[in-house]
Amino acid sequence: MIKYLFLCAMTLFCSAGWAEHVTLPTGPYPLPEYSLKYDPARDPFIDGVEAIQLAQDSHRKILIEVGGDWCKWCHILDDFLKQNPGTAQQLHAQFVLLKINVSDENNNQAFLDSFPKPLGYPHMYVSAADGNLLKSKDTAEFLVNGEYSTEAFAAFINKWTTHE
User: Fold this and answer.
1) Residue 141 falls within a domain, yes or no?
2) Is 135 helix (H, G, I), strand (E, B) or coil?
3) Confidence of residue 147 (pLDDT cuts 50, 70, 90)
4) Residue 23 domain-assigned?
5) Which domain, by its residues, includes 51?
6) Which of 38, 133, 156, 162 has its CA 20 to 30 A from that of 123?
């Protein structure tokens, strides 16, 4: 397995703002700010350190979602998860979501250089709690008849509930 250490440049740890909550078997956890939106002002290395710590503390994997506010399909994905709270709950229960902005304002190239090139946006990368990249995932694979599918998301999430 190829090890993508987005940790290597991450030596700082910061505390994020907290908003929504996700319920895990061990209780409710707040969602960090970096899980809620694409923000060109955020530092993905700092957020990555925090996501790794949270993933280790909560025994989850990390789902890195790359996109931006300019991206139509990113908004469609966000709306899909808002309209399907059960799917969103499953996703957050299994993963720490780390949204990384890609835009003209900030393409976060230094962070993304260690990842396979995305096929489009939004694009997802599954990482183990220690930062090892496990999977590059084109979100078009979640589409059925041109719409995001709860079944396709559930199959993806369930694949990662086992310890591989």
Assistant:
1) yes
2) strand
3) very high
4) no
5) 31-159
6) 162
Which DSSP string corresponds to 1-28?
-----TTTT-----PPPEEEEEEETTEE
CA distances from 86 to 81, 92, 101, 113, 137 (A): 8, 10, 25, 33, 21
11: confidence class by pLDDT, cuts 50, 70, 90: very low
How far is Cα 69 from Cα 22, in angstroms, rounded to an integer? 23
Q: Is the preceding omega at residue 44 within 30 degrees of 0, hence cis?
A: no
| Residue 61: pLDDT over 70 | yes
Determine the 3-state secondary structure of 41 from DSSP. coil
Work out how many domains the chain is built from and give that number: 1
pTM for the whole thing? Answer: 0.83
Which domain CATH number covers 108? 3.40.30.10
pLDDT score recorded for residue 28? 62
Per the structure block, which two tokens stand in for 146?
Answer: 């041109």
